[in-house]
């Protein structure tokens, strides 16, 4: 049973832009527009205080934050409550909160992973120019150790989720190291240790597969990089 948050009473004037209805949307996600350009995932979590977030994706274009984001909640009820926060302030800026379709969210993820997927800001009417594709053998030609780096993990991902992701490799908790910031928040990255560099290279077949709703990128890494990440999380 989903939790209801009676402490929040929305203003009716905020609801028209958000598209709130008496029905509950199927996809428990929203799209934010007008965010401060220096905001991060923690700021968005504070903006939606009291609502449990499953994933938060900041939209970048040409390496710069666009002021837009997608937020996916743990269920339809908190997503509906999130719509009531349309036009509330974050810092000095008011933030627009809209419903979003599942396809928009997935396209935004693909765009982030592939640097040029199907999601484009609404003001852009013409299709983007074709981007040169990176050679498929880029990662294959890199030097491998027994460590792989995972990027793009859901912030709620657990060690058990990663072990299941690499199920056929029979990993243990000691092989998985999720990276955290100094404030204890997950970074969306992790490091996984395999028996040998050759085994790690075969595990690259999991590159851009999903954990939950997120595409996960894999990269060759080193024990030293994994160790530095663990040290940062302890600070």
Protein traits:
single chain; alpha+beta; Alpha-Beta Plaits; 2 domains; five-stranded antiparallel β-sheet; 7 helices; elongated
Write the layout of secondary structure elements.
Blueprint: H1 15-18, E1 29-33, H2 41-47, E2 53-61, E3 64-73, H3 76-83, E4 88-90, E5 93-99, H4 102-114, E6 147-151, H5 159-165, E7 176-180, E8 186-193, H6 197-202, E9 209-211, E10 214-220, H7 223-234
Antiparallel strand pairs: 1-3, 1-5, 2-3, 4-5, 6-8, 6-10, 7-8, 9-10
Would you kindly provide a written description of the structure presented here, covering whatever features stand out?
Helix content is 24%, strand content 26%. With 235 residues, it is α+β, with helices and mostly antiparallel strands. The protein has a 5-stranded antiparallel sheet, with helices on both faces. A 5-stranded antiparallel sheet has the order 7-8-6-10-9, with helices on both faces. Strand 2 and strand 3 form a beta hairpin. It is elongated, with a radius of gyration of 19 Å. Residues 1-24 and 116-137 have low confidence and may be disordered. Residues 146-223 form the RRM domain. Keywords: Repeat, RNA-binding.
Second-tier CATH architecture of the largest domain: 2-Layer Sandwich
Gap from first CA to last CA: 38 Å
- Main sheet specs: 5 strands, antiparallel
Query: Which stretches are low in confidence, meaning pLDDT under 50 for 5 or more residues running?
Result: 1-24, 116-137
- Backbone shape: elongated
- CATH C-level name of the largest domain: Alpha Beta
Number of domain modules: 2
Mean pLDDT: 79
CATH superfamily of the largest domain: RRM (RNA recognition motif) domain
The helix content is 10-25%
Please report which band the strand proportion falls in: under 5%, 5-15%, 15-25%, 25-35%, 35-45% or over 45%.
25-35%
Task: Note the total helix count.
Answer: 7
Count of DSSP strands? 10
Q: Please give the order of strands in the largest beta sheet.
A: 2-3-1-5-4
């Amino acid at each position: 049973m989903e939790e209801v948050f009676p402490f929040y009473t929305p203003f009716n004037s905020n609801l028209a832009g958000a598209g709130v209805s008496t029905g509950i949307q199927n996809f428990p996600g929203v799209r934010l527009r007008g965010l401060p350009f220096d905001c991060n995932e923690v700021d968005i979590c504070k903006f939606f205080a009291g609502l449990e977030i499953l994933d938060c994706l900041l939209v970048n274009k040409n390496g710069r934050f666009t002021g837009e984001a997608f937020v996916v909640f743990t269920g339809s009820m908190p997503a509906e409550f999130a719509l009531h926060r349309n036009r509330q302030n974050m810092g000095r800026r008011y933030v627009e909160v809209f419903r979003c379709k599942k396809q928009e969210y997935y396209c935004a993820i693909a765009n982030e992973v592939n640097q040029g997927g199907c999601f484009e800001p609404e003001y852009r009417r013409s299709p983007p120019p074709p981007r040169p594709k990176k050679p498929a053998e880029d990662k294959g030609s890199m030097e491998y150790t027994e460590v792989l780096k995972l990027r793009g993990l859901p912030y709620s991902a657990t060690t058990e989720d990663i072990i299941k992701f690499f199920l056929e490799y029979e990993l243990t908790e000691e092989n998985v190291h999720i990276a955290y910031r100094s404030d204890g928040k997950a970074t969306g990255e992790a490091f996984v240790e395999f028996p040998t560099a050759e085994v790690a290279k075969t595990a690259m077949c999991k590159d851009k597969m999903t954990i939950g709703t997120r595409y996960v990128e894999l990269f060759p890494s080193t024990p030293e990089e994994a160790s530095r990440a663990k040290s940062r999380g302890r600070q």
